[in-house]
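Lab notebook, design round three. We kept the backbone fixed and only want residue identities now. Task for the bench partner: fill in a sequence for the structure below.
Input structure tokens:
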């Protein structure tokens, strides 16, 4: 979840008690697991490369740099840019050789020209909390599964400059990654090309196969989802990012421990 308070962010939505994967283990120390395996158990080895299948759904009013004459299945320019940025940053190279990294592929992209029943097209009107919120999320997931049969995560681009109402501290939420659902929501205000890469980072951390969901260098004890370094991709706000945010090999290694890559 990206919050903005004159560009101050936060962005993993603490949703209902429904578990993304109720079979996931209790949180344990991955390093201890690995050491105890004596490096012989493949279950604890981390893959060097993984592919994440992304389903793109664009709702009416979302600003995605699309020509009105384009076919609805043509990937809009903003989406191409965002996915390209994610593919660029979530990889580690050494002398032009890939050391480790994640590749993001678009399984399908669909632009809806009319509102979908049960889903608000403007993210500012998204109900926050309660059964109406859960009903909306379930409707989005149902739509996503109809559009893409083999996606790992569904990304909705929506109209509106924030997600839900303005927060109590006068901040606004620009993008959301759910803790319990394979769902990311991008608003019209989430314009930085690396914001989707940030949200995808949350998704990969949240789905950690050892249930270690914190960033390797947590922002603070109450916000383990983010990184403490202002120039890092997973810092709570993009305000301090350089043109290309930084990312560490430890973060990529952690991303590669998403359950997605071991199913």
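Proposed sequence:
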């Amino acid at each position: 979840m990206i919050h903005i308070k004159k560009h101050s962010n936060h962005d993993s939505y603490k949703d209902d008690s429904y578990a993304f994967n109720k079979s996931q283990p209790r949180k344990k120390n991955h390093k201890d697991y690995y050491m105890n395996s004596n490096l012989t158990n493949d279950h604890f080895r981390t893959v060097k490369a993984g592919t994440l299948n992304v389903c793109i759904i664009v709702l009416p009013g979302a600003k995605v740099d699309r020509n009105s004459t384009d076919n609805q299945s043509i990937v809009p320019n903003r989406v191409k840019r965002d996915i390209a940025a994610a593919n660029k940053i979530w990889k580690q190279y050494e002398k032009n050789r890939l050391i480790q990294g994640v590749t993001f592929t678009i399984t399908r992209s669909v632009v809806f020209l009319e509102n979908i029943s049960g889903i608000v097209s403007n993210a500012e009107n998204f109900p926050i909390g309660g059964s109406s919120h859960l009903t909306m999320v379930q409707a989005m997931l149902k739509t996503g599964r109809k559009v893409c049969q083999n996606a790992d995560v569904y990304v909705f681009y929506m109209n509106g400059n924030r997600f839900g109402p303005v927060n109590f501290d006068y901040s606004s939420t620009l993008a959301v990654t759910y803790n319990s659902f394979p769902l990311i929501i991008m608003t019209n205000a989430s314009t930085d090309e690396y914001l989707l890469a940030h949200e995808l980072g949350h998704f990969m951390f949240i789905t950690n196969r050892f249930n270690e969901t914190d960033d390797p260098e947590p922002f603070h004890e109450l916000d383990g989802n983010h990184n403490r370094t202002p120039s890092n991709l997973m810092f709570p706000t993009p305000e301090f990012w350089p043109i290309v945010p930084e990312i560490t090999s430890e973060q990529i290694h952690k991303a590669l421990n998403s359950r997605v890559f071991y199913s």
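Keep this in mind before ordering anything: DSSP finds five helices and ten strands in the chain.
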